[in-house]
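Entry for the shared binder. Reason: the reviewer on the internal report wants the predicted structure included alongside the sequence.
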Amino acid sequence: MKLVLFRRQANAPLEPGLLTERGVVAIAHLVRAGHTAQLTMQNIIDDFDAIRPALEAAARDGAALAPETVRLGPPLPRPGKILACIANYWEHAQREARPLNMFMKNPDAVIGPGDTIRLPAFTEPWAFMHEAELAVVIRGPAKMVRREDWRSAVFGYTCMIDVTARGEGRRTWPSNPPMSWLGKSFDTFAPLGPCIVTADEIPDPNNLHVQFWNDGQLRHNYNTDDMEHPVPEIIAFASTVMTLNSGDVLSCGTNHEGLGFLQDGERVRILIHGIGEMSLDVVDPLKRSWERGIYQGQDSTHHDAVRRYRPQTVLRPTTN
């Protein structure tokens, strides 16, 4: 089942729906409304077992709105917290696994399908890059989850682009000042969507094909089986540190092979097979420019990595 939040027209409030092959089916009459769209989605997560039969009937028989007549929003517009893995992919390196570690990303940075990534308008010596990632949507409260019980804390999955400022905002240790993660948290730097796919539809989150295009150029092209620390371990680790609540997001890190810059006027698209795809525009008020294409200077990125192991999939054009 694919859960979405959508608008029937510009500036209309977000309402809950199901994304089906027939279109978007409205389900507000079947779910417990919250004061915000985020709280409504959290209610769906908490109540899901009880309301699932009604949702399945709606997905099968309910009136469907044509996709071109609605505008999808982020399925979680303001998560309680976004925890994101640092690195976490082997990237075909022969070495020991790095320690699992995470950082917190600003929940106010969330945007959704068809929205605009806006690069910050100041002249610090930073550059801005994309990181296409699998994101886990939590069903909580979850605390001290054992690795073997990881499924109890998972409601579903979505896509996230971890937009990242690199340069002065990402000093390495030792340095003065120490390394900062603020460059991950500018407004619009956490695109989520297009939907939440319920966990039952993803048998193994560590066997998903992730792709990312910039102006039609395929950059990220990897499988989540390449994680150093798989999803069960991420959940166990994060829930040891803090209580995970319904609607929280754990982003699983990226394979840096294929990393590239984002700059003004570009259009990007993320696809995780089995979950969905979304496109966004990039705007830079300062009209800066960086190397166009796949970045070769750092982060274990190899120029031909996107063409190496994973299949090249022919996809229909998108309108988002």
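Summary line for the report: Residues 143 and 242 are 7 Å apart (CA to CA).
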